[in-house]
Amino acid sequence: MSFLEAFWRKRSNRKLHREIVSSVRHTLAEDDDILSDEEKVRLEEFARAADDAKSNPDPAESAEALKNVAQEYAAYSGRSTFKAWMCSVLDVLAVAFGVAFGLRALFVQPFQIPTSSMQPTLFGIHYIDREASAPYRNAFVKLCTPLGASDAKIVSPRDFAMVESDPVPVVRPWLSLIPSLLHPGDLYRTGSVLRFGGENFLLPGADPRDNIFRYLPEDPRMRPYRQGETVFDGWVSSGDHLFVDRVSIHFKPLKRGEVFVFNTEGLYSSHGTPLTGYYYIKRLAGLPGDTLRIQDGHLYIRPKNENTFRPAEWFNPAFCKVYSGLGGYQGHHGMGRLEEGVEFTVPDDCCFALGDNTANSLDSRDWGPLPVRNIIGRALFVFWPVSRRVGAVDRQYPIQVPTEYPPSSTQPTAMNLQ
After folding, report:
1. Domain at 241-417, CATH from 2.10.109.10, 1.10.246.80, 3.30.300.20, 3.30.70.260
2. How many whole angstroms separate alpha carbon 389 and alpha carbon 396?
3. Distance, C-alpha 149 to centroid of its chain
4. Where are the beta strands (DSSP E) in 305-412?
5. Which residues make beta-bridge pairs with 189?
6. What does the pLDDT look like over 99-138, one tens digit per residue?
7. Which own/partner contact pairs does 304-308 have at CB distance under 8 Å and 24+ positions apart?
8. β-strand pairing of 310-311 with 298-302
9. Per-residue DSSP letter, 132
10. What backbone phi and psi angles, to 5 degrees, belong to 206?
């Protein structure tokens, strides 16, 4: 036997020896409570026999002896060494998944922003203008944008082109997404077909009227376009994904001004219909017993057993950016239970939730006070997509752009810059 043959034979012998011993130890540990003393002794004998076979100085004889031990062990135990190894791997995976799902259920839960109600603190699915947003996205964010957003662009194919139909939702087959792996900015499976200027355009998202048109300076349905004129060019972002801390609220109660997640069980809109969606995210505006008032677009709070109203930012500086008039922040709009100048007292065991984008938010002004038992946890960390908001929730100052509404838009211009 050559030197190389002896080397590889010894290496194979060591591997088989490890497998036999590992399998025996796994069986002894896994079935300790059901094995008899005689069975335990017999299994230990297999491990010692493997040790003896490995110690044989002749590689060929050692290999033959180890093979015999492995066959006898498999016949006795009903499992092969490979099967035992697979059982061990599956046990580890089962524990890992159990821990992961346990952590998710009990401690930290992922959550996707469903609507625009918390913009610009947290964004749901929305349009980002490619050119206008460039100064507000650093090089790394620009590089990663195609991974969490999809291209949305229409260039007029002829003169006097107009939007000719309502969008038609489509679901792209999975196979059609394979070419998108080479072009990350085309990863949306849900899309819509819009007929414009005699041609069909596939756009990301279920309805461009909600995730594109309302973010444009002018509604593209309002006028015709010249050939070659860009109607819009940007991205439809998948919306912010974040982790929710479910534990700390049991030791450190939520404070006014914190962003939190809750479920909608037992909540009904002012029209008497159950709220759509099971999880909502808002900012905590009032605690049990607080009296609230919106005056001149500003929230004032009078805590329980006190006589004086104070501005919301007195309780938490996080409210300051809501009143900054920058980056899409626009103060608090009075409506419903909190009409301008009307006072509302939060009942016991309830709190009052407001969106930061109150002109486009369905919150406690409409469906009323939120039972404390519905609270899930405090918003913790934005992990996707890569944007200026990645990191601790609510840490960013507004971008330095005045909050202005174009004539035909339902979202301030600054919303499509971030």
Report:
1. 2.10.109.10
2. 7
3. 14
4. 310-311, 343-345, 350-354, 370-371, 375-384, 391-392
5. none
6. 555 555 557 889 999 899 999 999 999 999 999 999 999 9
7. none
8. antiparallel
9. T
10. -75, -30
pLDDT tens-digit map of 28-69? 887 777 888 888 888 899 889 989 988 888 888 888 898 888
Contact 20, 46 (CB under 8 A): yes
Of residues 302, 297, 342, the one with CA closest to residue 323: 297
Domain with CATH 2.10.109.10 in the chain: 241-417
C-alpha neighbours within 13 Å on the C-beta side of residue 275: 23
> Which amino acid makes up residue 395?
R
Is residue 146 within 8 Å of 231, Cβ to Cβ? no
Question: What is the rounded distance in angstroms from the CA atom of residue 356 to the CA atom of residue 332?
Answer: 8
- Residue 147 parent element (H or E): helix 139-148
Which has the closest alpha carbon to 301: 345, 340, 331? 345
For the chain, how many residues are written?
A: 418
Alpha-carbon distance of 103 to 384, in angstroms, equals 19
Question: Nearest to residue 369, comparing CAs of 290, 307, 300?
Answer: 290
Q: Which residue has the tokens 């109150």?
A: 358
* pLDDT band at residue 74 using 50, 70 and 90 as cut-offs: confident
Q: How far apart are CA 21 and CA 84, in angstroms?
A: 11
Separation of first and last alpha carbons in the chain: 70
| Cis upstream peptide for 179 (omega within 30°) | no
Taking the CB of residue 111, how many other CB atoms lie within 10 A of it? 19
What element of type H or E holds 47? helix 37-55
Give CA–CA dist 212/209, Å, rounded: 6
Eight-state DSSP code of residue 362: -
Give the integer Cα–Cα distance in Å for 141 and 132: 15
Q: Looking at residue 100, what is its pLDDT?
A: 53
